[in-house]
Amino acid sequence: MSLAISTPKTTCWGLSDPSLLRSLAYVGGCWTAGTGGITSAVTNPADDGHLGEVASLSGTDSAAAVDRAQAAFPEWSLLLPQHRSSMLRRWFELIIEHREDLARIMTLEQGKPISEARGEIDYGASFVEFYAEEAKRPNIESVTSHLPDAEVEVWREPVGVAALITPWNFPSAMLTRKAAAALAAGCTVVAHPSAETPFSALALAELAERAGFPAGVFNVVTGSAPAVVEPWMSDPRVRAVSFTGSTDIGKLLYSQAASTVKRLVLELGGHAPFILFSDADLDLAVSEAVKAKFATSGQDCLGANRYFAERPVYEAFCSRFADEAARLTVGPGLDDPDIGPLMNEKAVAKQEEHIADAVARGARVLTGGKRHESGRLFFQPTVLCDVPHDALILHEETFGPVAAVTPFDSEEEVLRRANDTEFGLVAYLHTQDPRRIFRASRTLQFGMVAVNRTKVTGAPIPFGGMKQSGLEREGSRLGLEAFTEVKYVCRDWA
Ligand code: NAP
Predict the structure, then answer these.
(1) Ligand 1 pocket, 229 CB below 6 A?
(2) Which of 186, 193, 302, 349 stands the most exposed, by the fewest C-beta atoms within 10 Å?
(3) Which CATH superfamily is domain 272-458 in?
(4) CA–CA dist 66, 269 (Å, integer)
(5) Is the CB of 62 under 6 A from ligand 1?
């Protein structure tokens, strides 16, 4: 395959290992520009600087990637588990070895503060390490036979070629979380990274190549999402699709998957409630409230969107939360501020729309409320209080650094309001009453409930949402099983 595109103007990215910067797609063990000769530009959201051009592959190229993944599947799926495990382990070690470069690439193309980018590399690598171990575990379950003279076993077999589609907000960890599970299960993979942040995925492909994955096992196909993904959705050889992104695109893929009855993992939008009861530790709640909103500059599916504070602590919480938010620093990610730029103009416009709508309905702006002087895509950390129930921000994911606070008067009321959404990814709860923790954890219709803390994710836990926040789980043993089929074998020794 030809190298039709020159390496982007990237040698000045300040990397120790500039060969991690790849501008071509990685298909069948080769770096390829595809057949169309088209490229797409990647810009730095901090300053609109041109970072480079990446190959934009056509539908025909993308179908050819499935050919390569399908050809690699039989050998990969039959490889002894310890060999798959060793390659995953080597990939993990290489990611950790190149942590600083990978974090720098991410900050340049995605904008997030460099400390957060380092954290994402570690988080993403932890899935590769975890699934390197899980790859070795036996996948056979013996069942006591219900038939005379018969022996019964249940096997889990890799489903086949898996298509992985990842978003721009976690361009590294969303790929490793899916790919490591699929590869450990014995699947081969075709992956489409967001056109806004392809360099992180291509750097992971470079390291996968160095780790020794055979040609065709792990493919990264860059290009326009509809052009690349549509051929996968209609291709019967693609047996599983794992998507992280918006609920709207998730629904589209759900309908496209129907014609070939694919397995689906959907990690979609969130609209997290943060519920503060008056018996909670207020100092802790304020500091966790800041983390729950402003990490990843608010562009996080786990970001709290609706803050409910019980009336006796409402004013104190609003003012202390706003004070803390006002202290957050904003600037280019490489300067390691608390908040970097948003991804694009659409994201900034959404913050303005949600604030204007809430204010028009009577909300007060306690801090922030406007674009930040650091540049076109920067926004001030914002806290709104007295946000009425009908405000847009209490019904839609804001996906930015704007927090909406509203008071409540009873446990029954707040749990009903928290559940009054089509989303169900994560809920945050602050209280010291163990009975209330039990009742609320049972009542909240969310895939994850975080009590008196914000950070709850990690490789061993099942990550995922209820209702329109998604299907299936990532991480844990369940994340691997999502890429398997169950086969039941009944043997009679006649
Ligand atoms: P998005 O617009 O849905 O994009 C996600 C991915 O889908 C990208 O790779 C995108 O490619 C691709 N895509 C876009 N249009 C497509 C199409 N017609 N067919 C197939 N693929 C298509 O979401 P986003 O704006 O990047 O991410 C933000 C959303 O993701 C938020 O709603 C957030 O809550 C959610 N999210 C969820 C989780 C979770 O684990 N539950 C984690 C992170 C983010 P291009 O970017 O190249 O268009």
Answers:
(1) yes
(2) 349
(3) Aldehyde Dehydrogenase; Chain A, domain 2 (3.40.309.10)
(4) 28
(5) no
% of the chain surpassing 70 pLDDT: 97
pLDDT in tens, 224-272: 999 999 999 999 999 999 999 999 999 999 999 999 999 999 999 999 9
Whether 225 is in the pocket of ligand 1, judged by its Cβ within 6 Å, is yes
pLDDT at 134: 97
Q: What residue segments make up the domains of the chain, in order of their start?
A: 18-268+469-488, 272-458
Kindly report the protein residue whose alpha carbon is nearest to atom 18 of ligand 1: 226
CA distance 81 to 135: 6
Alpha-carbon gap, residue 87 to 89, rounded angstroms: 5
- Is 267 part of the annotated catalytic residue set? yes
* pTM for this model (two decimals): 0.96
269 lines ligand 1 (CB under 6 A): yes
Q: How far, in Å, from the CA of 65 to the mean position of ligand 1?
A: 21
What length does the chain have?
494
From the CA of 12, how far away is ligand 1's center (Å)?
30
Any catalytic annotation for residue 412? no
**SS3 category, 42:** strand
Query: Residue 2: pLDDT above 80?
Result: no
**Looking at the predicted structure, is the pLDDT value of residue 374 above 90?**
yes
* Torsion sign (Cα): 52, 166, 241, 87: positive
The partner residues of 55 in beta bridges, in order of sequence, read: 39
Asked if 367 and 373 count as a contact pair (C-beta separation under 8 A), the reply is no
Name the β-bridge partners of 192. Answer: 165
Q: Contact, 171 vs 111, CB < 8 A?
A: no
CATH topology of domain 18-268+469-488: Aldehyde Dehydrogenase; Chain A, domain 1 (3.40.605)
470 lines ligand 1 (CB under 6 A): yes
Give pLDDT tens digits for 116-173.
999 999 999 999 999 999 999 877 788 899 998 899 999 999 999 999 999 999 999 9
